TrEMBL record:
CDD domains: SDR_c
Coiled-coil stretches: none
Alphabetic keyword roster: Oxidoreductase
Originating organism: Streptosporangium becharense
Gene3D superfamilies: NAD(P)-binding Rossmann-like Domain (3.40.50.720)
Pfam families to which the protein is assigned, alphabetical: adh_short (PF00106)
Classification lineage: Bacteria, Bacillati, Actinomycetota, Actinomycetes, Streptosporangiales
Protein name: NAD(P)-dependent dehydrogenase (Short-subunit alcohol dehydrogenase family)
GO molecular function, one term: oxidoreductase activity
UniProt similarity note: Belongs to the short-chain dehydrogenases/reductases (SDR) family.
InterPro entries assigned to the protein according to its UniProt record, in alphabetical order: NAD(P)-bd_dom_sf, SDR_fam
Source domain of life: Bacteria
Amino acid sequence: MSSSDGSDDRVALITGTNRGSGRAIAEDLRDRGYRIFSLNRSLAGDDWLGERRCDLADPAQIRTAVARVLDEAGHLDVCVSNAVDRVLDPIAELSEADWERLLSINLSAGFHLVKAVLPALRERRGIFVAMGSHAGTRYFEGGAAYSATKAGLKALVETLLLEERRNGVRACLVSPGAIANLDGDESPHKMSTRSIARCVGTIVDSLPGDLVVGEIEVRPADLAEPPVTGIDRLLHV
């Protein structure tokens, strides 16, 4: 139950809640009693999302949007860096503009978001969650920009945990495999956005206070075909 001044409200700020995993995470945290605020480039238009229009490629917009959220909310308990862009071109065909945009949105935005929310998270002994990817450690053709940004995000979150744990701030990287993120995708070989959201919600809301999850890796429970094992892996390198 919230106090009259709202100081007992639990507040979560999430980027990229207009669809997919981000929206599912927002729904899960809302159902757990959090007041939701969102930073979205394209607005979904739902009042409960507490949206602020923000192009995460622009550090100034991140600072301004976070300041407005904190001014309205008064405090912050959880920040989830979820928004992402993908370009899956081979290096020979990858444009410089696409490379720079992915660096800005997938990696640099996480840094600028941390800088903006960190004082508030320190006050509430809160948690910063970043949505990583198996692409950060399992590289593939066409994934240079995406994988590079996710690998960098892993380093950023681990360093944040090392530096800020003494200040009461937890940091966690959620590293998932394939997610059914697109509308209409019901593949049994991918994780649902609801499952990913439940994972994030559990880390944020249901773990003992003397425990921190620095990184969690999650994979689909079902495979499209039997995995390649043993010496047969050499046929697939």
